[in-house]
């Protein structure tokens, strides 16, 4: 095993993570969840991502998700579990992933040797993931690995996503960023969700967003135009470096050649999915 190039793990994550996320924007997810009695889009996301943790209450999900308002979570959790059990939710999510990936990638790609290779590599990386202080990863790690390669790859992408995500929350806490400040500063990089998507899906009001921006300005992290200052840019860079350090084990375990190959395969599948309209055009950006 050779030494990984700087940020190689992050680059790999950046193409593997969206493979999991395709399901959250697909019509198939709404259809499958409607079939088990869950129709509200917020309930679909909260239950879909949180079901691996079991029928937990709103406090648990708010803590694990970090950037959702408690009030939004409490409107749907735990009431959703009275409509559909976590097991039925997980089944609906996996069926939605199957149909979504077949639609956006095509049957040939789903059944390809490259997909099977990507699944093997990603699952090998997950062998070095750790459960402690990572509740969303730990919950998903208890789920069985699907047999079909495209779903095995999707499952592994889920594990790698939640493993890095749990570590990122520790970095946000260390940086002293509360949930809305984290969202505002990430959006200001141009790589985070647009404000309209944040306000639509995370349960915050425009007044919450503006107040967080004010606090960031007081800390010298954001300027009057809503752009990151030099200090803000440095803070966001250190956040990612901190997250890289906490998430290094899976990629070190996979090794330089494996990381490079998984990145190559993951990029190909991601570009194909994006080209098929898997993600909203206005999802990312400052507008």
Task: Write the SSE topology.
Layout: H1 8-21, H2 27-35, H3 41-50, H4 58-65, H5 70-76, H6 79-83, H7 86-105, H8 107-110, H9 113-126, H10 135-141, H11 149-175, H12 179-188, H13 195-201, H14 206-218, H15 230-246, H16 249-275
Helix pairs in contact: 1-11, 1-16, 2-7, 4-5, 9-11, 9-16, 10-11, 11-15, 12-14
Protein name: SalK
Explain what this protein looks like in three dimensions:
By secondary structure, the protein is mostly helical. It has one domain (8-275). It has 16 helices and no strands. Helix 10 packs antiparallel against helix 11 (149-175). It is globular, with a radius of gyration of 19 Å.
* Share of helix, binned: 55-70%
From the N-terminal CA to the C-terminal CA, the straight-line distance is 43 Å
Ranges where pLDDT stays below 50 over 5 or more residues in a row are: none
Mean pLDDT: 97
- Estimated structural class: mainly alpha
Number of contiguous helices: 16
Kindly estimate the percentage of residues that lie in beta strands according to DSSP. Answer: under 5%
């Amino acid at each position: 095993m050779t030494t990984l190039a700087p940020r190689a793990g992050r680059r790999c994550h950046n193409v593997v993570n969206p493979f999991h996320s395709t399901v959250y924007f697909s019509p198939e997810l709404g259809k499958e969840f409607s079939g088990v009695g869950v129709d509200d889009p917020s309930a679909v996301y909260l239950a879909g991502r949180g079901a691996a943790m079991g029928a937990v209450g709103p406090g648990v999900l708010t803590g694990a998700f970090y950037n959702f308002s408690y009030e939004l979570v409490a409107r749907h959790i735990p009431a959703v579990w009275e409509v559909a059990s976590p097991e039925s939710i997980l089944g609906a999510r996996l069926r939605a992933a199957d149909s979504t990936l077949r639609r956006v990638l095509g049957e040939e790609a789903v059944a390809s040797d490259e997909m099977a290779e990507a699944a093997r590599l990603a699952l090998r990386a997950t062998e070095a993931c750790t459960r402690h202080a990572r509740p969303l990863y730990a919950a998903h790690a208890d789920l069985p690995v699907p047999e079909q390669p495209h779903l095995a790859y999707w499952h592994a992408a889920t594990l790698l996503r939640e493993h890095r995500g749990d570590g990122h929350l520790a970095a946000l806490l260390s940086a002293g960023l509360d949930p809305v400040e984290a969202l505002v500063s990430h959006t200001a990089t141009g790589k985070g969700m647009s404000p309209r998507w944040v306000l639509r899906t995370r349960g915050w009001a425009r007044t919450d967003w503006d107040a967080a921006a004010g606090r960031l300005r007081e800390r010298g992290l954001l300027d009057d135009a809503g752009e990151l200052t030099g200090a803000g840019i440095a803070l966001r860079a250190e956040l990612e470096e901190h997250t890289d350090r906490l998430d290094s084990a899976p990629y070190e375990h996979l090794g330089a050649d494996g990381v490079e190959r998984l990145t190559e395969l993951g990029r190909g599948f991601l570009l194909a999915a994006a080209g098929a309209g898997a993600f909203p055009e206005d999802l990312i950006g400052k507008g």
